[in-house]
Structure formats: C-alpha cells, structure tokens
Amino acid sequence: MIENSQKRNMTEILSSILIAGAASLIFLQQSPLHPWIRAEAATDSSVYKTVSLMMEKGYTPYLDSFDHKGPMIFVINRIGDFFSPYCGVWVVEAAFLFVSLIMIYKTARLFCRPLSGLVVSFLSVSPLFVYFQGGNLCEEYAMSFIAASLFIFLDYLKNNNISPWRIIICGLCFGGTLLIKPNLTALWIVMCLGIAIEVIIRKNWKDLKYFILFFCIGLACICIPFIIWLSVRGALAQFWNDCVLFNREYVSDFDGYASFSGKWNTFISFVKNPFIFTALLLALFNLTGEEKKVSLLWLLSMLVSLLFTCMAGRVYLHYGMILVPLLAYPFATALEELEKLELKQGNSFFRRIVLVAACTLLFVTNWAGLICSLPDNFKNRNADNVSAETSRIVDYIDRNTKPDDRISVYGNWDIIYVLSDRAHATRYSYQYPVADVAQKIFEEYTSQLKEEQPEVVVVQAGKWDGLIAGFLKENNYEMAVPEGAETADHAMLFIRKQK
Questions:
Q1: Best CA proximity match to 41, nearest among 129, 130, 133
Q2: Residue 134 above 70 pLDDT?
Q3: Rounded distance, CA 338 to CA 318, Å?
Q4: Long-range contacts of 398-407 (CB under 8 A, 24+ apart)
Q5: What DSSP character marks residue 126?
C-alpha cells in the first residue's frame, strides 16, 4: 500500500511538472519576446529592457536611468539578457510562470483531488489571457511570489503545517515583491496581520517570535543585497526619490484619474471579470462554512489587492495579474464540496459533468487557438515582426551612429534603444506620462539634453510639440527620417549637424 501510494505521488508530481511546463511554453507564445515571434516589446517591457541595457553598459538604475519601479524588475531583465540580448527574458518569464502554475496547483490540492486540482489551476489562470498584455511586467513576476506564499499561508491555516524554511521562503517572496512594486504586497499585509492577531489572542508569544524572526531572515536575505548594491553605486537616495516620493505623486489626483470615481471605476472593471466575480461569490458562500477564518482572510486579501490595484485610478489590465493566484482557493473549495457530495451520494456523475464542461470551455475559449498556432509560429520563426516605422528609425541609427553614441527618444518609445543597442542620453529614457506627474522632469530632461547634445533625437509619433521643436532648432539638429516637413503623425529622427 505504501509503495503504491509513493508511485501515485511520484506520478502526480511528474505529471504536474510536465503539464505546467507545457502550459507555460504554449501560453507564452503570446509574448512578443518569444524566440519564434521576436516582435516589439510593449511599452513598460521596453523600459525595463532599456534599464537592463544601461546596466550592461556600466550605468546604474535611478542614478543614470529613471524609472519608478523597484530594482528587482531590472535585475530580472538583466538575468534574461545573459541568455539572449533580446529574447532572453522570455526564458525567465517561462520559469516564473511555471512556478506560478505549480504553486497554484499545490494550493488547489490542499482542498481537492488531483483531477479537480488540475481543473482549478486552469480556471485560475484563465484571466491571464486578458491580463497578460505582452508580458515582462511587474505583476507577472509577482504572481509567482504571491502563489508560493498563498500556498504556505493556507497550508498553515488549514493543516497547521509550518517550518522555519517555509517562513523564510514567505519572507523572501514578500521581499521580492516589495522590490518589484510595493503595492503588490496586499496578501502578506492581510495574512501576516491575521495570523499575528490569532497568535496574540492565544497568547502564544513563542510562536509569534518564531514567525517574526524567520520571516525577517527571509526578507533580509533578499533586500540587503539590493540595498548594498544601490548604496555602493551611490543610487540609494535617488532610488528613494524615484520609487517612493515620485510614486506618492503618481497615485495623487494630478490628472483626475485618481479621484474616488476613477478608483471606483477601476475597481468595478476588475470585479466584473467573470472569474473574479465568481470567486468573490464563492468566498462569500464559504463564510457560512466550516473554515470561516480562512475564507475571511482570503476575502480580505482579495479586497485589499483590488484596492491597491485601483490606487492610481487607471484601468491597466495587467494590474489584474496579481489576482490570478488568489483564485485557486475559492474554486478549489467549490470542487471540494462536489467531492464531498460525491462521497455522500456514492455517485460521481455530477462532478464528472462539471469537470468535463469546465475543461471543454477552457480549451475552446483559451487554449485551442494557441495550440493551433504552434505550427505557423514555428514555420515563420525567422520572419521580421518589427514594424516598418521602428525598423526605419533603428536602421538609420545603426548606419549613422557609433555603438558608444548616446541618443534620446522624446515620448515613451524605449524599444528604439533596445533594438539599436544605444544608451540613452539624459537620465530620462522616456518623459511621458511621468513628466505630467512632476513638471520638474521636463526641466531636468531639457537641461541635460542641452548639456549632452546627443547625436540623434527621435520624436515618437504624436509627441511633436513646441518644447522639443525649440530645442532641435536652437541646437542645430536637422530631420533625417522621414524626409520632408515635420509631422506629428509619424515618428521623426533628427541628427545633430557637425559644426
């Protein structure tokens, strides 16, 4: 019996690894950084890749290259660049998504059987088809940390299963998420506070010290190296200015979006997703069940995550990725109830119908198209999927500048730096929308632009204005791409005339 049980466990482990691995590779065909696709990285992804490019050339994030995200996202992209300068981060994405799927499955298995757990996993990740938005985003990597910690929290709350290593891992995951984007940490805020209150009520001071100690060890293990690195590079103060002080302005109502109505509209836009709405209903139903404490903490975690997602009042769909790992719990408890009903009635027909219907729906609506596109993507793997406008700008830069020349792109079009392999002039690789938040960014950018006089200035389509026009005219730049008069409808490239 023991031997058969071990074989079943090993079969389940291997099966879950193979399915999660295959699902990760199939899903990530949606990434423009896929080695067979090689299309243009999306706006935020291009920014992270640009900072990684600057790091490769010896520059320091925040000090030499502005962004208001945490340093972990730049290090992730730098690791990816070791595999391949453009597509390497796709390998890191696949690893993170694999971990997310495995941990979501393990969370589901705390409550239901293997087949039900598999269905729960695919149900939980279904919103990713809407929220992914090209990938290489903060929320995508935070998903893995959230999924791992949720499993640890739920296994403790349900089975009292805990160990020093688990608490350390939980602290590491919290620190990793904090170093990516602080407002993605709702799960730890709610769960740690809830568990601490429970331990204090029981007056179990020994456990409280034990939890705090090992959690802080995990947190320190990941945060201290980053603090030392930024301190040694002289960037710690600038990191504080960019990631803390600037973000406080970013979530203020500087443009009307962060008003109550803006936040409310953002909240509703996420809640009305059918998977999230169903999960919330199931969680409310669970409050009347046996595990009220777990259900309450989960519900608070989801609500605080939603509130943090809505802080800026902007509906950026990729913000919803942090909600994906949380969906495993209510879906798993629903299938757990079906399994209990099956045991009670001695009839598995209804549960099988539910599982078959769920699998069919998920395959037809989400996965079938991706699987069918595999042959074509492989066949066209050498195709050029970069737009003609981007190619024209990059080709000109390659032909008319030296590798160590610095350029500047006016707007928010960092893919130009990445594809041309050129460092950006000034501290700002992009100016929008951050200069709308803090006007001093425009002032600092134009001041540095006049001082550095980059070889090339590119103006993104739709960003032509008096500020950049005045600089180009005063500093002897001439338009090289396209040939003709300035127009806001197309990207333009200006090259500095030799005096």
A1: 133
A2: yes
A3: 32
A4: 400/455, 400/456, 400/480, 400/495, 401/455, 401/456, 405/454, 405/455, 405/456, 406/452, 406/454, 406/455, 407/454, 407/455, 407/456, 407/457, 407/458
A5: T
What is d(CA 486, CA 145) in angstroms, rounded to the nearest whole number? 47
Asked if 430 contacts 411 with a C-beta cutoff of 8 angstroms, the reply is yes
Judge contact between 309 and 270, C-beta under 8 A.
Answer: yes
CA 470 to centroid of chain Cα atoms? 38
Q: How many CA atoms lie within 13 A of 462 on its CB side?
A: 4
- Which residue carries 């769909």 as its tokens? 317
Which residues, at least 6 apart from 308, have a Cβ–Cβ distance to it below 8 Å?
183, 184, 185, 186
DSSP helix/strand/coil, 278: helix
Task: Give dist(CA 101, CA 220) in Å, integer.
Answer: 27
Which residues, in sequence order, are bridge partners of residue 65?
A: 61
Question: What is the token pair recorded at 489?
Answer: 């409808």
Full strand arrangement of the beta sheet holding 407-410: 407-410, 456-459, 492-496, 477-481
Extract long-range pairs of 394-403: CB within 8 Å, 24+ residues apart. Answer: 394/419, 394/420, 396/480, 396/481, 396/493, 397/422, 397/456, 397/458, 397/493, 400/455, 400/456, 400/480, 400/495, 401/455, 401/456
CA angle centred on 183, ends 177 and 189, rounded to 5°: 75
Average pLDDT, whole number, for the chain? 91
Structure confidence by residue, pLDDT tens digits, 4-59? 667 778 889 899 999 999 999 999 999 999 999 999 999 999 999 999 999 999 99
Radius of gyration of the chain (CA): 25
- DSSP 8-class letter at 497: P
CB contact at 8 A, 111 and 122: no
Instruction: Name the residue with tokens 């500087």.
Output: 254
Q: Any residues with CB less than 8 A from the CB of 205 and at least 6 apart, and which? A: none
Q: What is the pLDDT of residues 315-368, one digit of tens each?
A: 789 999 999 999 999 999 988 888 877 777 665 666 677 777 777 777 767 888
Q: How many CB atoms are closer than 10 A to CB 498?
A: 5
Amino acid at 260: F
Looking at this protein, which amino acid is placed at residue 272? K
pLDDT reported for residue 247: 85
What is the model's pLDDT at position 354? 72
Tokens of 315: 């509906």
> How far is it, in rounded angstroms, from Cα 150 to Cα 180?
18
Residue 468 and residue 457 in contact, taking contact as beta carbons nearer than 8 Å = yes
Bridge-based pairing state of the strands 477-481 and 492-496: antiparallel
Determine contact, residues 431/410, Cβ cutoff 8 Å: yes
pTM: 0.94
The pairing of beta strand 492-496 with beta strand 407-410? unpaired
pLDDT at 282 over 60: yes
Question: Percentage helix, strand, coil, to 5, in the chain?
Answer: 70, 5, 25
